User: Fold this.
Amino acid sequence: MATLLFITFAVLLLLGMPVAFSIALSALNVLLAGGVKPLMVVQRMFTAQDSFSLIAVPFFILAGDLMSKGTVSKVLVEFAESLVGWIKGGLTIVAVLAGMFFAAISGSGAATTAAVGATLIPEMEKRGYRVDKSAALIASAGTIGVVIPPSVPMVLYAVIAEQSVSTMFRNGFVPGILMGLVLIVIALVEAKKLNYPMGTKLSGRTIAKTFVKAIWGILMPLIILGGIFSGYFTSSEAADIAVIYAIIIGFFVYRDLGAKKLYEIVKGSAKTSAVIMIIIACSGAFGWVLANWNIPETIANGVLSVSQNKYIIMFIIGVIILVAGIFMETSSAIILLTPVFLPLVKAMGVNLVHFGVVFTVGLAIGMITPPVAINLFVASSITKMPMMKIGKAIRPYLLGLVIAFFLVMYVPMFIPGLIVG
Assistant:
């Protein structure tokens, strides 16, 4: 049954069938072959979405869209530039810092790339920075968008793996900062090699001025994550508050949001959320098939028969995650592969929260690896530059992020206590 399930899924994907329908139809094929009533597909689709925590998904997406399509991204970039813009090639550091700032607001890699790229790439080009390198760096920084909380993929993993969303969020900061530091180091090396110019002089007055402008954007993650970690509200309630906060500052503080623009943003966010939710629904049937025929346990036993060394097995899983990120969208991969990996990870005694963070970081890297490289598509649309040209420029950043991925995987395994409970 496992062979039938995965072959059907692969064939449907190769034929161009949308991921959600490929998942549902491959599950249906196995059910029919096993003599189970097709009604089970509908029942499992409904059950898969019957989770309070999933309310956070559409609201975090909407909050991110509201913030990315307004003034917030611009003032955050200005604040970051006031801090480090004076360094030679400082705008490359600004790009990464702005990506990290925005990651703590949007929870989306594409939104982070779009917000920072639309604001910063024209300025970098004006100052003599190579456009392909600038776009590559900003697309790479966009991967941090789903690692630093709030993170939609972390919410999805937490729901499937039955882990605490707030605990997942607590453990996302250090990997996200590590990714940012790796990108900054590589960007500075590139800046020296390409002889990028010095930026504006360091000025306390400018820092204070830009901070005052950016304070409303900076406050958003502090309010949302502070409320979650202090126990004042759940992640789902935090997502609702994020939307309300974004609307208030859009209408009354920055005044860049009107009724027509709000309608367009809500419509776009609804489409994005609908895609994710239908994948979740269809994965309910897929997951039931996996569980009913003990497919994850069979896979786990097969892998464990090859090696009992958990470090080797985690390396194999890590490679699979990176390859999956190349061909699958992040949310789809988490929904599809989490039930497959969990029995194996549990058998090795790996902390499930740690694995969730590793999973998220690995799939985030897939956002800059063609053919399914959403951040590269966004960067290409901003610069009007062929995606493959940006893809060539992204190689040093990609290598750095892969190294960061394996550090996130192995360091907590060698040094217990790094994962926050």
Summary: The first helix runs from residue 2 to 14. The CA atoms of residues 212 and 275 lie 38 Å apart. The mean pLDDT is 87. The chain has 21 helices and no strands.
